């Protein structure tokens, strides 16, 4: 067969076999086209390549352009099969006088025709061609060659057809298609726009896998899109606003993209725009805020003005959407605005290196207060039928972020909403799987196509814990929370979360939010112990909580890096033990003895004697483990010392147990080895409180203290109460 015949075969698409014309069209009239059937027969009976080419040419003459339907395509496939296209695709030599790619072009054309059938597009013989097809996207050649362009079009049609099958995206990613598409787009050769469209589809279908397989190439595309976005002066900047969120990596955005993205958004949002132009920009900004916090916003005047603009726009959108009853809420846009408001809350509460100046903070707090009022108004209208909708979850989340920092304003409205919040949190707690799914839906709603990270926890209760911690200090809100059953819910939640940290679970894979949530629960319980002691005594859930604290602390104090949680558990347990001292569980049981031994370990290891250069006397200093977190720990430590002191007279077995631990002896030894001037008055008071109660409670304790030079030490530190107690028989 001549090269001219091959070239003619390469133009099969113009007669209905090229991919671009393989769309279903008019069906044949009743009865098949006899001429076509004869030529298909010849195609089936072809004995060599030349006969197959000739038959294909005859088929194209019998089938008018655009007049091929699915059944006809299937008959052509039945006649040709995969063997012949396979040979064409792998052919490395073309007939004399023909371009190198002519045989491969015909093979791709046939394959694209077959891929118009979804069943064939998922055929293993198509899927195993993905690596070969991907190489065609980046192959070099004459950009003006019509046959090569047609081949590229057919290649994209094949890959797009595969992507449309259920398992197609996974096969394309494994076959190297993502990298090839990135390179094709960055090369800006023929069909680069098709490469971008297919990339968008693959990222939407399997973002994590795409980034895992082709991160460097995808980052290169992101950098290119960011530069285009920064330079765009026409309507393309709005299109890029919609594209860019899909190309932001699931972890963090490369810093080299920050400037371009921020500059592009500043130009858009600083202009007077319609909602369809502004909303994609707000969603892109929200995605960046979710991924990078405020790192992508430059420091200085321009950055602070831009951040203030973002938050103001977000608050206006929230109020417009939620204050008007009956207005259709664009939930994806409002959820994006929530993310920007969270960024505003974080920056307004940041003391060091905040992007905002104080007047800007005051102004933003004012507008955010109005927006939060609109959120509360919306949530008050939510019926039980809507409680499981992702937008409600997103609205509770932003309210939780606000209450974590501010509870004094909108107090009346917050109190009015508290019963709903307790019921809502209880509903999602009891249906934890649905809560996790809601978190995923919220992330998909506006922030990102990725799975939520630790900043988007899947239970509503964790979102509300910081706010409830503040509210339990106030009489009115606390009474509402107690009336609605919040303490019982919190106990159940604490016990459930505690199970995640117990032996047998890999705590290394737990997000930090789990431990932070446990600590916040402890703070809430501490507030209740102080402000509502009667509740602790009468509610059975606190007895269960006390049992868990007692059995858990001994192992917890031995674990590295968990000192702050241990401090919370120890202090809470000691304070509750004072209130529950008559409980059988605290009458010298193994669990109670183990708990107090662990509490003594926590309290006794906080300080050590440290030598100072040029001085014969050591000074009292923090232990290395305590030193780095003492700012967060010291209040709990002093409260724990006070609570232990209060437990001694209530539990007769405790003083002998403390003596066996040698804590009072070692404490006096420590004080005797350091300079009294290095011990702060509040430390002296805390130590004296414990020593006095132990001495009063037990004669053997008094004797042991005297043997440890207790009277002399008491005199040096002006511990009058201890000195008097030890001087008595």
TrEMBL record:
InterPro entries: ARM-type_fold, Neurochondrin. Pfam families: Neurochondrin. Belongs to the neurochondrin family. PANTHER family: NEUROCHONDRIN (PTHR13109). This is Neurochondrin. It comes from Macaca mulatta (Rhesus macaque).
């Amino acid at each position: 067969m001549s090269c001219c015949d091959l070239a003619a075969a390469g133009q099969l698409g113009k007669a209905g076999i090229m991919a671009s014309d393989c769309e279903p069209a008019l069906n044949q009239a009743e009865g098949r086209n006899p001429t076509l059937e004869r030529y298909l027969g010849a195609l089936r009976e072809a004995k060599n390549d030349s006969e197959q080419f000739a038959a294909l040419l005859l088929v194209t003459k019998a089938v008018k352009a655009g007049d091929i339907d699915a059944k006809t395509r299937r008959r052509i496939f039945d006649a040709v099969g995969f063997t012949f296209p396979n040979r064409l695709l792998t052919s490395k030599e073309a007939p004399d006088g023909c371009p190198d790619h002519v045989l491969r072009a015909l093979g791709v054309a046939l394959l694209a025709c077959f891929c118009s059938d979804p069943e064939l597009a998922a055929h293993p013989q198509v899927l195993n061609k993905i690596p070969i097809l991907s190489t065609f996207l980046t192959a070099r050649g004459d950009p003006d060659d019509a046959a090569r362009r047609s081949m590229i079009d057919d290649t994209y049609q094949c890959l797009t057809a595969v992507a449309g099958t259920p398992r197609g995206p996974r096969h394309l990613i494994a076959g190297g298609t993502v990298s090839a598409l990135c390179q094709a787009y960055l090369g800006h050769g023929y069909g680069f726009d098709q490469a971008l469209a297919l990339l968008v589809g693959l990222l939407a279908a399997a973002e994590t896998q795409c980034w895992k397989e082709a991160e460097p190439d995808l980052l290169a595309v992101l950098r290119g899109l960011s530069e285009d976005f920064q330079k765009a002066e026409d309507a393309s900047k709005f299109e890029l606003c919609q594209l860019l969120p899909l190309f932001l990596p699931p972890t963090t955005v490369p810093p080299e993209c920050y400037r371009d993205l921020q500059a592009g958004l500043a130009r858009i949002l600083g202009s007077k725009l319609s909602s369809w132009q502004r909303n994609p920009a707000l969603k892109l900004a929200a995605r960046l805020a979710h991924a990078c916090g405020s790192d992508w916003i430059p420091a200085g005047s321009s950055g602070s003005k831009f951040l203030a603009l973002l938050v103001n726009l977000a608050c206006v959108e929230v109020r417009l959407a939620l204050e008007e009853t009956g207005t259709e809420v664009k939930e994806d846009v409002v959820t994006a605005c929530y993310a920007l408001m969270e960024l505003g809350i974080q920056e307004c509460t940041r003391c060091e290196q905040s992007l905002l100046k104080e007047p800007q903070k005051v102004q933003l707090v004012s507008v955010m207060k109005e927006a939060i009022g609109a959120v509360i108004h919306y949530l008050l209208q939510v019926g039980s039928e809507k409680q499981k909708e992702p937008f409600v979850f997103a609205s509770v989340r932003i309210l939780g972020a606000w209450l974590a920092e501010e509870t004094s304003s909108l107090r009346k409205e917050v109190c009015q909403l508290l019963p709903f919040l307790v019921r809502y949190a209880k509903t999602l707690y009891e249906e934890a799987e649905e809560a996790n799914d809601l978190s995923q839906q919220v992330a998909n709603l506006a922030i990102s196509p990725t799975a939520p990270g630790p900043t988007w926890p899947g239970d509503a209760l964790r979102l509300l814990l910081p706010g409830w911690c503040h509210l339990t200090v106030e009489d009115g809100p606390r009474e509402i929370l107690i009336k609605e059953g919040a303490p019982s819910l919190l106990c159940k939640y604490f016990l459930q979360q505690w199970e995640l940290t117990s032996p047998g679970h890999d705590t290394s894979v737990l997000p930090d939010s789990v431990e932070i949530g446990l600590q916040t629960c402890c703070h809430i319980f501490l507030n209740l112990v102080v402000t509502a002691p009667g509740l602790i005594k009468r509610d059975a859930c606190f007895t269960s909580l006390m049992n868990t604290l007692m059995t858990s602390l001994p192992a917890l104090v031995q674990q590295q890096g968990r000192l702050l949680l241990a401090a919370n558990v120890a202090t809470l347990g000691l304070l509750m033990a004072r209130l529950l001292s008559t409980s059988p569980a605290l009458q010298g049981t193994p669990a109670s003895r183990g708990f107090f031994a662990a509490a003594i370990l926590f309290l006794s290891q906080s300080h050590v004697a440290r030598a100072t250069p040029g001085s014969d006397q050591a000074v009292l200093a923090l232990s290395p483990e305590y030193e780095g977190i003492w700012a967060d720990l010291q209040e709990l430590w002093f409260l724990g010392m006070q609570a232990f002191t209060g437990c001694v007279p209530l539990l007769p077995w405790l003083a002998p147990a403390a003596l066996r631990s040698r804590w009072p002896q070692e404490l006096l030894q420590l004080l005797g080895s350091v300079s009294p001037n290095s011990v702060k008055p509040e430390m002296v008071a805390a130590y004296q409180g414990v020593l006095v109660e132990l001495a009063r409670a037990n004669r053997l304790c008094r004797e042991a203290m005297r043997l440890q030079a207790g009277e002399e030490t008491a005199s040096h530190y002006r511990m009058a109460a201890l000195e008097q107690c030890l001087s008595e028989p």
